[in-house]
């Protein structure tokens, strides 16, 4: 049996560190490592490009939607204004007709009043006589 001394443990630890360092050096000097890094960078760049294109498309769609909503709102406002103008014109026309017919109504009511007055003149004055006549 071997004796584990402090010195042998130090040597073993140093050898393990050297092997580990050599392993990392071989990995770092691997020609495929640079190729894999370049491929990952290309994939990342493509992903970022797709994300930027998607964001631009969403922005374009949002702008188109906002423009369409603005167009619809303008059309709705124009339609409401047209309806209000038509309603105001119709009310003005009806008011004008009413005002134009007013002298006729007044004249007709004067004639009706005059006719009832004339009819009242022809009626008997006494109510008792009126009952007898009926």
From TrEMBL:
Can you tell me which residues the record assigns to a coiled coil?
45-97
Asked if the Swiss-Prot or TrEMBL record annotates the protein with the keyword Coiled coil, the reply is yes
**Keywords, comma-separated and alphabetical:** Coiled coil
Q: Which InterPro entries would you find in this protein's record?
A: DUF6481
Domain of life the protein comes from: Bacteria
Give the protein name, as stated in the record: DUF6481 family protein
